[in-house]
Amino acid sequence: MIATRLLTGLALAAAALSAVSLPSAAQAVTPATPAAFVVAGDADSAAAPAVIWGPRYSPGRGAKASGSLRATGEDHADIPAAETVRISGRVQDLTRASATCGLAVFRITYRTSDGNLPFTHRTVRDCSYGTPKPFTFDHRNVYQVELKVCSEARAAQPSLNCLYSGTWKTLYLSR
Predict the structure, then answer these.
(1) What is the pLDDT of residues 152-163, one digit of tens each?
(2) Residue 7 domain flag
(3) With contact defined as beta carbons under 8 Å apart, do 50 and 36 qualify?
(4) What is the model's pLDDT at position 58?
(5) CATH number of the domain where residue 49 is located
(6) For 97-118, how does the pLDDT look when each residue is reduced to its tens digit (9 = 90+)?
(7) How does 31-55 read in b/e, with b if 16+ C-beta sit within 10 Å?
(8) Phi and psi at residue 39, in whole multiples of 5°?
(9) Distance CA 143, CA 165 (A)
(10) pTM score, two decimals?
C-alpha cells in the first residue's frame, strides 16, 4: 500500500514537472528572438536599424556594458556574413576598488576567403569608477558577434577565467 502511494506520488510529480518544463507546440514552432539578439535576415540589410543590446552585467555586478550593433551589406546568396558590423556602446566599472576594471569582451567570428570561420577577441576596458568609457569599432566579413562582461584586476589581457568561464551572449548571427 505504501509502495503504491509512493509510486503514484512520483508519477504525479513527474507529470506535473513535464507539463511545466516542456514548451507548448505553438512556442516550439515560433521561437522568440530577444531584442538584444540579431539574426541576419530579420530586416532589410540596406536599411537595417541599429539593434540595442544590454545592459549586460558581469557576475557579481562589478561591471556593466550596453550599446548598439548595426550590420550592413549582408549577402546571403553567396556567403552568409555581414560586410561590416559596427558595434558601439559604453562599458562601466561599478566597483570602487582602484585595482579593478570592468571589461566588455567581444568574440567576433569572421569568414575568411577560403570559407573558414576563425574568431578574434576585441576588449574594451574601463578602470575608472563612475565614469563609463564609450567605444565604437567596425569589423568586416562578420559571421557572429558574442559578448561577455567581466570585472577583474587590471591587466593587459582578459584572464582565462573571464574568457572561458560562463556563457557568451550572442548579439549577432548571420544565417
Answers:
(1) 999 999 999 999
(2) no
(3) no
(4) 96
(5) 2.60.40
(6) 889 999 999 999 999 989 899 9
(7) eeeeebbbebeeeebeebeebebbe
(8) -115, 125
(9) 23
(10) 0.72
Cell digits for 150? 567581466
Q: Strand 63-72 vs strand 38-39: parallel, antiparallel, or unpaired?
A: unpaired
Task: Region of 18 please: left (phi>0), alpha (psi -120 to 50) or beta.
Answer: alpha
Whether 49 is in a domain gets the answer yes
Amino acid (one-letter) located at 169 = K
User: Using an 8 Å Cβ cutoff, are 104 and 145 in contact?
Assistant: no
Which of 23-27, 39-43, 75-79 is predicted most confidently? 75-79
Residue partners of 80: CB distance under 8 A and separation at least 6: 40, 111, 143, 174, 175
Enclosing domain of residue 43 = 35-173
Query: What gap in Å lies between CA 140 and CA 132, rounded to an integer?
Result: 26
Q: In angstroms, how far is CA 63 from the centroid of its own chain? A: 15
What domain count does the chain have? 1
Dist. CA 104–CA 158, nearest whole Å: 9
